[in-house]
Amino acid sequence: MNTESTTPAGPEAGRPRVRTYDVVALNVPIAYNGFGDHDRNGALYVLAADAEELRAVASSWPVPFPDYTREPERVPAPHPKARPLVLRVRRGERLRVRLANELSRPVGITLQGVRYDARTTDGAAVGANPDSSVPPGRTREYEWLCEHEGVFHFGDMADPRGEGSQSHGLVGAVVVEAPEATWTDPVTGAPLATGLEADVHLPDRSFREYVVFMMEYPSNDNPVAPPEHGGHGGDGDHGHGGHMAAAGSDTLDDLTPPNNAMLPVNLRIEPMAWRMYLYHKMLADGVLDPVRDAQTGEELHHSSWMFGDPATPVFRGYSGDPAVIRLVHGGMRDTHVFHTHLHQWRLDPADENSPIVDSVSISPQEGMTLDLIGGLGSAQNAVGDSIWHCHMYVHFHMGMWGMFRIFDTLQDGSGRYPDGTSVTALAPLPHRAAPPAPTPERPGFPAFLAQTATFPQKNPRPPRTPHQPAGMGREPTALEAGAFCPDPQPGEAFTKVGPPGAPVRRFHLVAATGTLYYHGDPKKPHGTTWHDHRGMFYALAEEIEEAGGLEAFQRQLARGERTLEPLVIRARKGEVLEMTLTNALPSGKQEASAFDYELPFQPECGLHTHLVKYDPLVSDGSAIGWNYISATTTADQGEDAFGRYNSWTYRWYVDHEFGTVLFHDHLLANYRQRHGLFGALIAEPEDATWFSPDDRGTPLRRGTRAVVERADGTAYREAVLAVGDFVPMVRHATAGAVADGAMADSHDGGHDGGHDGGHDGGPINPPPHPGAPDDQGVMGVNYRCEPLSERGGDPADWFASDVHGDPGTPLLRAYPGEDVRLHVLQGSHDLQHSFTVSGTRWRQWAGRPDTAWRDQQTFGISNVAELRLDRRTGPGDHLWAFGATNDLWLGCWGLLRLHDRPQRDLPALPGALLGQDPLPSRRASRRYTVRARSRVISYSDRRTDPYGLVYTVDGAPDDAGPLVLRCRAGEWVEVTLINELDGPPPASPLDPAVMNEEDPGARTVSGRVSLHPTLLRYDVRHHDGAHVGRNEDGTVKPGGARTYRWYADEPGVVLLRDQADVVSHMRRGLVGALVVEAADATPYDPATGRERWSGEQAVVRRPHAEPVRELVLVAQDGLRLYHDGDLTQPVTDLFSDSPDDAGQKAYNYRTAALHPLAPALSDPEPPTPLLRCRPGDQVALHLAIGASRMRNQCFTVHGQVWDASETGRGTYVSTIGALATGSTRTIRFRAQYPGDYAYRTGNLHWGVSEGWWGLIRVSETP
Q1: In which domain of life is the source organism classified (predicted)?
Q2: 123 and 24 in a common domain
Q3: Is the pTM of this model over 0.70?
Q4: 3-state SS string over 1226-1241?
Q5: Cα 498 to Cα 577: distance, rounded to the nearest angstrom
Q6: pLDDT digit string, tens, across residues 120-173
Q7: Pick from 9, 285, 460, 798: CA 20 to 30 A from residue 872's CA?
Q8: Residue 931 forms beta bridges with which residues?
């Protein structure tokens, strides 16, 4: 193996330097931790130099595999080289890989982020290309020119199945470094061949580099599951805190698939279930103090004081070290949400003005570079352990986490951790001063905690500092006091959080419980409520005092006399916040319910924040690694702890105008956050002042809505919308009066009741047993929902206020012309959501007019966004919604009402346009007549939808695909829609169900239709293609017609969809797209050469510009197809356990489902659209996500790269992810080499198998 780059000589002289790696693909059993979780059929790419060592692992693997609970000493430890392979190369070099295949089937390497000749270098069998994978026992050479810096996924696309080789570990990444970079081992400082960690050196600086692979669902061949230990966190189901008693078995073979599922990082996991097993074993062995060390499970999941360090990565460095995370999604299905405590980065590393974030959604086969602002320890140079993890709590719980360990003293290999393990040496970075050596008086982290605790035990509680309130916290030890920062203020001890003299803003929060009514009013007779009588929330201490105390506050909630939204507070950039939290959660045993497992006592509660600066040792609100447990107590933690820590002060510094900042409990987040225990800080500009939106003279302490005024006299309205899912809820018929106290607990259905969808007063959509990880509960926005199932009637009227009244969800009000800003966040729990607003839009990045217009934003838990609405948005009722079918069905929608006349209770802001039309005058119009019809849709030779509904356009060929129209920028588009349906189409009992739906066959399907656009400008009152709020009915009855008028001002792709039945119509085919071309562009039919303004493909020509070959792809999911149209022969779902995956998938009414016995992309004429072009042609792919499911999608094209920002100044990628209902994107690249190039989803589990792939054929004669 030669990892040094070489300069070509002879005939190749002058070509880029070549860096060569010899790689072997071989079967290696993979141990994911020391508890016996393993994949006996693991497969890895490894350097040839390491192959013999790993072959020895396979030959010595124990058979039968030992039971960890009986023979822990026989369980193999994870091998340090059984990891995803990382290859490094410099930008501008050619990467050459000689791949030897020792597996029993063909293997290839398909690399993202590079352009290549698919006929020789694709690593797969695609279309008409020769198969470029490697047969068993053979070797093949691949070579790629690496033109762009970043991290790029590679995997085995010779096996594209969801359960194929990549799920067993056959993945890796190429990191393309700067042209002058070198890299060394962080421990020894020696040159490094490969590795997940490296020190990277440039002429003027060095940085720590950490590669993180997020993966999911490999096989787990452990013969045992963690044994149960009662009902408080034994958690054998790996869910969000359930217990093994509900699973009923200790054997993985007897458990349902989610119970033995694994979610590794870098092929390692550290699940809570096994740590709880260790906890109970240590209790039984007398190692732990049953009072001091009592835990329910989750609160100490990440503790090294209790369990030692995890099997997952602990990335080490010195405070202030520059650091870069290379994040790779090596999994097959889920879009994960990667979050780091303490640290932040720019969303696009190539754009120094892109948003600052600390969590990001990442989809399969994506790669991202996270350049940590301020390096390790962030800008405040903190020390301590800082966790990073997938924020989806089920994943977090199942072991998808690791840590940064940030030292403040030199580590030369002689030190030891509190559990006695050696501290491996760590070479300081060049260009940086070495940290001081440890001394007895200042030993550094974590040694200065040594006088407070002994291993194993619960994390020690933090010390008080001189300015803490009297009685708060214990006195510090001498070592702790010696490690204090100068003059520590309340909420900081070892790290100075803000600059001296920064203004301080103080809040006193209370964590409490109470009944939260999400839907309905308990005071109204003969109605229904959806409520969580175990709701949890943060409230201001002052509002509880004003209510007469906590019990009075709770009574008011239970009676419906007080409504509550998630706590939202505000602060200015440059301010310090002193956040005092008091724990008022009920002490004692917490009974089990249909959703929740039993808690023997109430664990600690914390206040963990995102984005702002803090001291991680005392203000993280967690118990991470060797840190303290920085949390508040109840009486269950003992009299002394309750007296000193029932309240605790956290200190945050707002160093940037972040916009939305999420905070939440981190000790029992899996249990509490879905009940509502989260809130938000809005970081405002330095000169901002905020008031009540109803009275601009009333200052605002808390509230989801505000008017914010600036020193220059400008002002804006802002509103916070916080979505939550997995919310435990029951349905109850109201009698009009509610007794003192909460709704009776009997309505939660116990452990086994309520699997009736809540229609008889039971729990709504409960899990199979308390604490199970299955999709469950309900969704809400700001603790409210407006479920469509409760509205009834014709689906076309579900959103109409003149039929059902205004929804109970937040009604946002403003005037046209005002600056309106929506702060949207996801506070819980596990699902992805797609936020849209009809009839308006916003720039992709707030305050950046050079970025693309968007009217859809994808969210996963902890994702936040500031959406500054287009000020040219006109009056009327605009539907805001989390737009996947399940979100809408469960009530995650509401109204943005823009008034065109002054309202007495809504003072107008500067810039308001009252009585004015913000739309341009109607000039040139492009007119279409579109018909909605019933038609059997043939998705492939054998798969059809007999219940299909389609749009057709007059005067155009009757294409097999969906409606695709075109216009020029600056044109008005007039579409006359004619409804040719005979009446309401029939329901089908075999349709994929929505959540909490018992019988799809009993579903009402509307006979009305509509055509609703995204992104365009129009009068939402008349041309929205929907019946929303107080707007006129924009749907079309059978036999009727209606004309819509839309203004297309900027080029791009627009999703067109039906809004008359959001559950059934789009899924049956009423979906399409409009492409807005440049103002001087003309589209032509690729086959005839004639001008054509409809159809999925076009050659677009402009004066003095190259022609562009254009393909529009409309992605569909949730379909119910039938074999040969036989209604008794539905196509079986490949994965039926999750509603997110129910139904079939297609592009443009066509699906290229793989044959189970020949799963390859080798069909040269797949049913999906085939784009033909020549080498050198410009290509534009317009994506419109017309899908209805919540599962996020991603999209990639083999052998191509493009600018992710669509501006020409961003990071280059080969995959875009987090695509959800309503997403639209345009991908532009230049075809280079002849051959067939696959476009496809990266969701191998089960997107590719279900047909989400097609071909771009590049040839001299297209």
Answers
A1: Bacteria
A2: yes
A3: yes
A4: EEEEECCCCEEEEEEC
A5: 10
A6: 999 999 999 999 999 999 999 999 999 999 999 999 999 898 778 899 999 999
A7: 798
A8: 952, 978
